[in-house]
Each structure stands twice: as structure tokens, then as C-alpha cells.
Structures
1.
Amino acid sequence: MYIIKEKPEDFVVEEIPKIELEKKGNYLYFILEKKNWNTNEAIKAMASRLRVKEKYFNIAGIKDKKAVTRQVVSVYGVNRNRLENLKIKDIKIEFLGYGSERLRLGQMFGNNFNIVVRNLDKKGKKINFIENYFDDQRFGGRNHLLGHGLVRKEYRKVCYMLRLKWEKGDYVGALRKLGKKLVRFYVNSYQSWLFNKALYEYLKLKYKNYYKVDYSAGEFIFSDEKIKNFKFPILGFLTEFKDREVEKIYDKLMKTEKVNKEDFIFRDFPEISSEGNEREIIVSLKDLKIKYEDDELHKGKMKAILSFSLPAGSYATLVVKKMFS
């Protein structure tokens, strides 16, 4: 079985930023390079040292913990010298410039990856695209289950799952204390799981030459056939189906899950309502390079050294799963 992230240096990610820098502004932009920190933990540590609120920091995307990652961060109202003088283990800060607006999620062209895949007995499959699923990092074990409970308005159940305390049956009040960003993430995780299930069924229906690969929340289908790309719905209260086959798949899935589009409206917690979105069903690998060498950590095995680029929101771990499973 292949191994990735055996050490942080085996998984290197660098954002391709989409920002406009200015000579002055209320927002300071910098590159956060980190190892053995997830993005939220790193920001929490920096905010604590600088004695500013975490909400003053904004990012374009969340990066893994067990990796070496470089990403752009904006922070409001912080002095450059104070930021550059921060000393936190396994965190480096590189000043970029100023701006008049905060960084927003998805505000990047994509990511460059350098990955070492270890413990190989043979070379991987040759691929030039991946099916654009959401991978394990999105689900974290039970994030989608919490999202399902929220969409079903089973607030008491969700509070029990999260071991939250509430007063006089005010379950929504208890959830609000987590912060709308985290609670919305649970809903988004469930939408991502529904997307994966629906895409799985669609590919199974349309393509015959495929193979299955397990992941933490179910199964993926990968195909060696050329797949026609289009934007596939991520379910929400404003979702409109343009393809009858996709609509039938989602109808069946919603019946099984006992949810409907309108359930993504939260009248008692409107900040987490979700109108839905779209996502391309495949993405191409850009500038893919592969080199095989002896694996110095596993005697008698090979390692693959991969480098490639993916657009924002796509998962490099899917490249590894498709190539080496």
C-alpha cells in the first residue's frame, strides 16, 4: 500500500495567488509558510501573539497540517514590524505588500504541489485528469454527519454529537456559540458528500471502464475513459437541474437522505443557509512530472516524486488515489 505524508516534507503545497498589491492600505498581505500546523491553528497562534482577533485574518484556502505549505494571508490593521518579528516554531512569515480589501476564500488561481509517494511495488497509472470529488480532508470523520443533522433540523442531536451545553432547549443558541463559520462548514461538508455520491452514481451510469477506490466517507469511481466535462450541481435551496439524469440521481439521493432543497434554508439560523453551487466534474493536471527512485525509508520499494498544478478547490490527494490505488 502506498504511503503519503510520511514526513511533512513529502507533501509540499504552494498557492498561486490572485491578488493586487498596493503601496499602502489597511490590509497587510503576507505568505504564511508552515509545517505541522493546520491553517486555523496557525492563525490562532499568530492572533494570540499579536493580541488581535482571529477574524482580522483572512485566507484563500485551508491547507493541511502534515505538510509544508505556503499560502497568502491578509490581516487587518497589524504593523508590519510586529508581524515580521513573530517567532513561532515551524512558522515563517514573508511580507508581500498592502491592500485595501481582505483576502477571500477561493481567491487564487490554484496550487502547485510537490509530493513524494512511498512504499511502491510498481509504477502508477498514467493519468492527465482527475474526477473532481471532495476528498477526505473535507469530511474529517463526521463533519458531513453533523451537516446532515443540521439540514434535517435535528439540532438537539447535533448538540449531543458535539457535546455542547444548552439552556432551556435553546439548541440553536448553543450552536451559535461555535461561530457561524464552523457551523456553515458542517453544512458545506454535507453538500460535498452529496455531490460525491451523486457524481459517483452519474459516472457509474455513463461510463463502463472504471474502478472503485475507498475513502473515509464512501467510495470513488475513477475512469480511464475520456469524460465529458460540465458543471455538476452542489445541492442547495436555489439548485436548478439542467440535466435530467443528474436530477433523477439527486431526487433518489434526497429521498434516501430524507432531505429536500428547501431544507438548506435555516430560518432560525439564516447565516448558514446555502443556495448551492456548481463544480466541474473533472479537472486537468497541469505540468505533471513524475520521477521514480529507490525509497530510502522502505527497503526494496520505490518512491514516486510528483509535481503538478491544480485549480483552486481540487484535491492533490485524489491524484495519488487515482494513480496508485
2.
Amino acid sequence: MPEPIRVTVWNEFRHEQHDAKIAAVYPNGIHGAIAEGLNQQDFVVQTATLDEPEHGLTQEKLANTDVLLWWGHGAHNEVSDEIVERVHKRILEDGMGLIVLHSGHFSKIFKRLMGTGCNLKWREDGQKERLWVVAPGHPIVQGIGEYIELPQEEMYGEHFDIPEPDELVFVSWFPGGEVFRSGCCYRRGTGRVFYFRPGHEEYPTYFNPQVQLVLANAVRWAAPTLTHKPIRGNAQPLEKIEVIGGGEGDILSRVKGAN
């Protein structure tokens, strides 16, 4: 039987402590709500927040994380570059998955992985959002119908300054006429990255069963598939070879015993 996927949910955890309205929506924090949904699945779930030592992302915790979920908003610049480098390396070299949520599009780690500014249009008007499934059959939308409809959300609109996704699974529509690429899959190094748009802190989006299902599906999709770490750098030949001409700088060689 395979080992359960180890998940860490990271959250700034600032709004919930300083805004009573948001605390009423997420009394255990946004990370707590996301973890609660994921705990209904066969995952091992832990949480981490900005103000913990090393932002809760110690070497040990990351080493025991298969997929990291990231919610950030007002304190992107307070995240240590050292921790960003640690997460970046874990994704590229070890195959850890990353799921970036809502305003995490402006996080240091997402911008580094994308290599672009990741900017967009936005408006806080509390209108509905309809997320259309544009990749039926993709693992992330398993169990989801044609669309997900959320009664209230913050609007994000194009143009979204990101690289072309490897796979696009959701496109959002808003009553103001805007559309947005709201479910974007990437492969970076040996890891997988999924950006999922909804999740404004003023609305109970992360209690929505369909949103919870998408996150669970995304965890399974983003979980490491690396069977061994690639070997890079100077390498010895697999076959026995000899240099033709005998000179140290001679680049002509042949496999011994070849025709």
C-alpha cells in the first residue's frame, strides 16, 4: 500500500488575527479551513504560518512535505529570501508539488517560478464567479461538472502576466464581463505547480465542497513522481572508451569493441 501524501498548508495568518469580520469567516485561519477539507482525504496534513520561526518551513518540515499549498496576500515581502530559495530548491530538485492559491500569485515563490511579474486586474465587489472546466478529463477536475459557481468572490481579470500554462483547466467568468485563467498547471524542474484563483479572505470559499475537491485532486496531481534524483555535472562514461590520437585535448573518441 502506498504511503499517504504528506501535505503542508502555508498561510500568512494575518487577516484572521487583525480583522474580526475575516476571523468570523475563518475562526481557525484560512490554513485551518483548507487543512480541514484535506483531512477528509487520505492525506497527512500539517500547517505553517508566516510568523512561526523560519515561517514554519524548516528544513525538516519541507523534507516531510510532498505538496505545499500557499496562501499569501498582504505580506509577500516579509517572506525571507532564504526560505523562498529553500522551497524553490525542494520543488526543482526533489519534485515537491506546489499549489498557489488566490493572491499567492504575487508571492515571491510563484513569481520566481514563473519568471514574470504575475500582475492582473482586480476588483472587490463580491459578485459571483463561475469557473468553467476547459480540460474535461484532467485529474484536477475529476468529479467536477461543467463549472463551479461561487456566490461571492473577488474579481481577477486578464491580462494575467504569466507564462502560457502547460495545461489550462479552469477559466473564470465574472458578471462585470471579465474572464481569467484560473486553473493553471506547470512543470518546473522535477516538480509540479498548480495555480488556483478563488479564495478571497472575506468569503467562505474554502468550505465549498467543490473547491475542497479541486484542492484534493490537485494535491494528488502535484504529488512527486520522481523515482530517483537526476545525476548532473561531470560524469564518467557508461561504456569503456579510448581517445583517438592520444592527445589530452582530443575530443574524438570511440567505444571499445565497436565496429
3.
Amino acid sequence: MQDQRRSFLKHGTAAIGSLTVGLSTQASTHHGTRVDRRPIGLQIYTLGSAVEKNPEASFSAIAKMGYGEIQALTYAHLAPADLRRAAVNAGLLLRTTHLDFSSNADPSALLEIAHQLGVVQVASSVLAPIPQASSAYLQTTGSMTVSDFQRVAERANRIAELTLRAGFSYAYHNHNFEFLDLGNGVCGYDVLLRETDPRYVKFELDCGWMSFAGGNVCSYLQRHAGRFSSLHIKNFDRIGHSSTLDKTASSHLTELGTGVIDYRPILDLALAQGLSYLIVEHDPRNGVPISMDMVQREFDFLNGLLATTPPDTTHLA
């Protein structure tokens, strides 16, 4: 185990070193007009199976749109090293990935994937209170209790300690079910913030899902400054609608720039706090990804907002 940890620490340090080199030149690598020094990222889940079929073409296309980085996830038939190579060849940063920590997979094996991807942050898309498949867990989220979220927090603490020893940072990504009222005005997200160790556990704040459930993104950023590493940026046609992740929830997703979430104050706060990652994600509805034209328009919308956002004077982390 000690040999594994030493190996992970070595790989993690190398990844951080290569990241520093990439960031120094990244601002001028694409012909898309990007107005903020912090690159706009795209969670490649947005692109559906296109990435697995042809990662080189997919990444080349989004780089030409102006995106500066991608957030990865794993594919059954695509080696992490190949995904990394395709990103590098397209001139895209690859600093962060989602890994399936919810399952009973060996965390060491998952962190080896992170090493092969060359990232510095790993995130759990969902994290169940006990190891189980994400698909099974998502069917039960409507009945979560305070105790369940306390167990999620315990798992997050353990995973985050392992990832830190391996040279990575860890972030918990939310959906809407964390904001279900569990009684006395307490929601699961508050339990997670309270019960996780701020030295190890950061949060990838999905602004769309939080807002859809009725959570106030700006309030969380203000009250828990320092706990967030990244934003997932998406929009819905309504806010405060549902904290249940049922089949109809994704039908309310809408194109950035046409939804009801006001990203101006969110971006002002996020950039002032030096959040490292701004990531566009548009969940494929019923498994069908959005068009590449919309992927372009979503970049253009966010890029336009950043053009009128006070400049970020922090260093990329």
C-alpha cells in the first residue's frame, strides 16, 4: 500500500507540474475569442457517445469553438491514456474528471485512471451512502435521510483523504436531491458541508441542479467561501421546481442564455473567490446529446458574460 501511495504521489506531482506549463500558454491556443484568463471547460458527458466514437474529432471541434479545457469521464471502450492524448492534440487542458466512487470499485484503481488521464482533481458525480451502482442509488434518492447523508459525508471524507495522499484533490458534485427538506429546514447538502472535512473535501457546485431544487447559489458561495473548487454551468426553464431526480427533471433543462438562472452574480462571486474550473454541462435528455450548434452557442453565451465580469486576478490552481 505504501508503494502505491508513493507511486501516486509521484504521478500527482508530475501532473501538477505539467499543468503549470500548460496554463502558461493556454490563453492563446484557440481561434475562439476567449476574454477571461480562466478557460471555459466542457464536461464531455454533454457530447454523449460521440467522444467514444471519435475523441479526436470531438475535441478538435470544441477547441475550435473556443473551449479551453474538458472535464473527463471514463468510457468502457476508450483507454484513459487515449482520451488524454486526444485532448493534448486538440490543445485542450484536462485537469479534472468524474470517477465512479459510488460503486464498490477499488479506489486505488480509480486513482490509477486519474493518473493516466493526467488530471489534478477527481470528482464524484454521485456518491451513495453505501457502495452501490450509481443507477441503483439514483432510484432511492427521494427517500434519503439525515443519517444517509451523514454516511455519504463519511465516505467522502475517506475518499478525499485517499485522493490527497495520491496527489489529487477531491470534489463532490451535486444534483437536485441534496436539497430535499429533511425536516426542520435541513437539507442533505447542508449535512454534507457540515460533516465533511474542509481540508480534504471540496464541492463542484452544479448551479443548475441547485437552482432547480430551490437552492440559492450565491448564498452558498457567500456562506461557504473556500469550499468550492468548480462550477457546473447549465440552465433550466424554472427554479425552485423539484428536489426529486425523476424522469421529468431533465425535461426542464434549457440552453444557456434562454433559461431563468441569472449567472451574472454567480460568476462575479466565483471569480472573486478564485474558483479553478468553470465547466459547461448540458445533460443529454433521454440519452440524446444536444447539437454541436448549441454547444457553440452555450460557449458564446458564457464567454460573453465573462467579457463583462470584473477580471479575475487570481492564479489558476
4.
Amino acid sequence: MFKYILKRIIISFLILIGVSFILYVLLRFMPTDFIENKIIALNQTGATVNDEFIRQMYKTYGLDGSVIEGYFKWLGNALRLDFGKSFINQREVVKEIFDPDKMGTSFFVAAVATVFEFLIAIPLGVTAATHQYSVRDYVVTVLVLIGISLPSFFFGQLLKDIFANKLHLFPVSGMKDAGITYAGAWDAFVDYARHMVLPILTVVILSIGARMRMTRTNMLEVLNSDYIRTARAKGLKESSVIYKHAFRNTLIPIVTGLAGLIPSLFSGAMITESVFDLTGLGKFALNAMTQGDIPVIMTYNMFLAFLSVMGVLLADLMYAVVDPRVKLV
């Protein structure tokens, strides 16, 4: 086990190096960069921008050299845990990304949505598989298609229009009501929770489709196995066959898939956070991307890449735990 983990860590490190190089090259070859956007903004104000000023700006932001030079400079700093400062506000990137308010908001929305996703998707996937080609199965299939097909910006706006603008059940956007003094921590939490209902509902409904489809597919595969037919031939109750024998093995890919959810807990839902004006990590990263803030984009994506490779490693280890037949070599 130790040798396997050590080997995977070394491979993961090499993968992260490759990802960082590809990502940096892509960012440097974007059609516009932060400097060009800043020059355009200065020109719109009527300021005079000469070539010397432009060269000095590229030098100041470390973009004056070649792409290869820039990458190895970034890599050397990153290996020393120096990820630079944001081009936009000159704050340290690490403090920006790991800000408790930004990451806390994204984590809260993603964690709560994930819990509800599993509580809803797994039972629906099981009941669809056990009632294959019935009305129940077709209804679940329609829900799957809706969840997969609807874009988050459209569905989020739809929920806002219905539940916030027309029914006035929840706030339209933001994370708290402006100008309100809370009597205590409980009142503040209730107001915060009311603002989070629609964003979480958006994420849940748009996420359960894929989880339901995976559960249904795995359940159908298990139900067609030889040992399930043997269990039924022995005269076991159908509920015992489904929930004691079939469902337990259906959970194996679901449990191992939990590790793959780790990046999504911290990445933030970019579009959803923008629609509901949440100060989360996703909205912050989207703003950095549109403005070409390379230090922020590099650090944010490498953080997610690190979580991804660690999640894959954890998934492999969990698979060996839940299925003793699997051997790690």
C-alpha cells in the first residue's frame, strides 16, 4: 500500500507540472491580456499611452519575456510557495483565493447541494431501475434530461423570477439584506440561509440528473447479475434482494465517486454565483479570467488540479476498501 501511494504521489506531481505548463501557455496566448485591457481603459479616459509606458507595464507585471521564461519563473516561485500578487488589486493571491468569505460561501453552497443531491438522486435512481420501463422510470428519465440540458444561468434566472420577483418568498440576490441589524447570531444565520436557498436549489436540480442516471445504470447492471438471480431463486423477499444484496454493490462506484467531488466543493459554481451575486470563489475566479489576471487564474486552477489528483488517489484507495477483491499494485 505504501509503495502504491508513493508511486501515485510521484505521478501526480508530474501530472501537476504538465498541467501547469499547458495552462500557463494557454493563458499567455489568450487573444487579450491584462495589460491590453488596462491600456484600452486608459485610452477611453483620454490618457496618452506611449510604447515605452507599455513596455514598462509588461516588465512590471512580469510579462515581458518569452512564454517559456515566464513559465519557469512562475514555477520556481510556486515551488517556493510564492504565487505572486493579483494583477487587479495587488493583494497576495493565496490570501485572495483562501479568503474565508469567498471559500466559505462556495463550500457551503456546494456541500449542502451535494448532500441533497445524493439524498434525492440515489433513491430516484434505485426506484427507476427497479421499475424499469414503467411510468416512474420515464418520469425519472425526463428529470435526468432536464437536469442535464438546462443551463445554469437560465435556470437560475427562472427561479429568481418565480420565487423572488413574483412570489417574494426569497431574496433576489446577495448574501444578506442591506441595512438590517440582526438581534443575534441566529437571525443572521436565518437571513443568510434564506439567501442561499435559490442558489443551492439551482445547483441541486442541475446536478441530480447525472447522479440519478449513474445510479440507475449501476443498479440495472447489478440486478442482472447471476448472484441476484440466485438470491431470488432461493425465495428471498424482493426488498431483501434489492436493498441488502443489489443496493450494497451499487454503492461501490458511488462511494468511490465521492472522492471526485472534492474539487467541486472548493471550486465554486461560477455561473450560479454570478447569477445570484454571491461573493464566492467561483465568481472571483470568473472575474479574474475575464480580466486576464494570470497569477490568480494559475493559482486557482492549480489548486483545483491538486484536489483532483488527490481525489483520484483517494477514490482508488476507497475502491479497495469497499471492494476487497481489488488489489493495489
